[in-house]
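Worked problem 6 (solution included).
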Amino acid sequence: MSDFTIPNQHPADPALAARIDAVLARTLAEQRLVGAVVLVAQGGRLAYQRAVGMADREAGRPMREDALFRLASVSKPIVSTAALVLLAQGRLDLDAAVSRYLPYFLPRLADGTAAVITVRHLLTHTAGLSYRFFQPEDGSYARAEVSDGMDDSRVSLRDNLARIAAAPLLYAPGTEWKYSIATDVLGAVIEQVSGLALPQAVAQLVTMPLGMLDTAFTARDPQRLTAAYANAGPAPRRLGSPDWIPFLDGSAGFHLAPDRALDAAAYPSGGAGMVGSAGDLLRLLETLRRGGAPLLPAALVAQMGSNQIGELPMAFWPGRGFGLGFTVLKDPAAARSPESVGTWRMGGTYGHSWFVDPQRELSVVAFTNTALEGMAGAFVDQLCHAVYGGTPAAASACSTAAAAADTDTAAAAAAVCASAAGARP
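Solution. The predicted structure is:
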């Protein structure tokens, strides 16, 4: 296990704390979030840490710093790192066809033409795949009964890949960027290469070496698992299991099953199926920001954190590109962001956001139990402002989220998800 630690910053920055505290207080008072954990590391030291609100409002259980959350797309950087560990070990080839590892996974274009998807395409979301929640309710993924990895489907990982392969690709691999279920396919590649089930492979390759003891594909300690909520008027509503949250107009929306976090029989979704704590994610992000040891060589981390998709457009993400697992800021002016060039950023449906600004030696994790405010609402923008000093020019990458902050519909919040969490085609 790594001896990696993040010491507290001395002296503390009272101005930073005051700004973030004010954002949290306002967000809770306006009932946009039920609870949150926010961590900020600066220069390798913990500059801010606080748990606020309720982990379980109905049970009267306060939020705690070591609370466990359903990670949704925050699973992606963890699973992507596992794949890169295999690459560093010489066991995986980024430019090999996925069919080399998964001979049964052979999706075709809409006209029936065969297509070659590589491991790099999976990591960069240029594989031609989609997500069911982007498509109409009767779209190709719905017809094939594809699971997005957050519902209560009893499908196995291999069977879900067969369903994905039965649906036509949206475009020829490598020609477009669209956020997708590609990391679930990557998870199956990891299984094949490692010879282990994905939960055991990720533990062996990433979480155990870093001491990320809270992070797995089911809740390690159910007593610390937060309840899940969705924004509604006048206050967030508790999600049932199963449940549904509307997304972009005309889309199928998010089919969610919060109890999946307790179900060891649910298939291990590499893109959306993990459970963990804010502290664990910060440990991974800081490991990568510092150069990757003991998991990865610095040169591979540099590749992971640099744009890999050239000038392919990313709708809703002006000024951004995509690395090997997350978005990368190319042009702060185009993105209207105070973040530095090269900043990594992503989020998760259940209410999370995170970013790493390597130039400023800054890592920020904000886990909440409220969808979609914690991923795509005004909170994400306001927190970013607070971290960077709240200057008027510091319109963050998620600034358009503020336009929907005064509405009480999940659909309005969903319309700006893309600009806050990096997950939209």
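Discussion: The two ends are 38 Å apart (CA to CA).
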